[in-house]
Specification:
By secondary structure, the chain is mainly α. Among the domains are: 57 residues, no CATH class; 40 residues, no CATH class. Helices cover 59% and strands 0% of the residues. The chain has 9 helices and no strands.
Length: 184
Amino acid sequence: MVKRRHVGGIVLSLALASPLAAQPPTTAFIGTPPQPGWNLLSAQQKAILTPLAAEWDKMDNVRRKKWLGIAERYPGMKPEEQRRMQERMREWASLSPEQRAKVRDSYREFNQLPSEQKQTVKQKWEAYSSLPPEEQQRLRQEGKSSRLLAPPPVAEPAPAPQEPVAGESESTATAQQPGEPVKN
């Protein structure tokens, strides 16, 4: 009799659970909606984003949305900022996919640095930027520019003092060298 109730309970729970399993999940992953292709951009957007024209239709929606956001802010920028933005777009468009990935990784790493290290890297960048182009080129060829701009190494904390082993005097414990067997 107990077995029948147990089996009946299992059958009932399966019967009740099956409609729940057939329903689609109540939460959905919302991605970036489709962004317009190059032909659907306004004349103003095309004028601003011209350096990216050749690859616009190959970009994913997230990247297109980012660039459209920049194009929206562009008219409010100062002429010098606009010139710099155009220059950066041309530079970005000229990079290979591998170079772009490397730049993105560097940017991600930089953003994870503590603020003191970010400041140090910024100061090193300013010093490097103020060098004559010939000197910058020389440093790049020697591979020193990346070392100059790298964040300073994080100092490792000093090892904690060892606790004396039970039954050992403090003077014996401090005289023991690391990696040396315990003296009895």
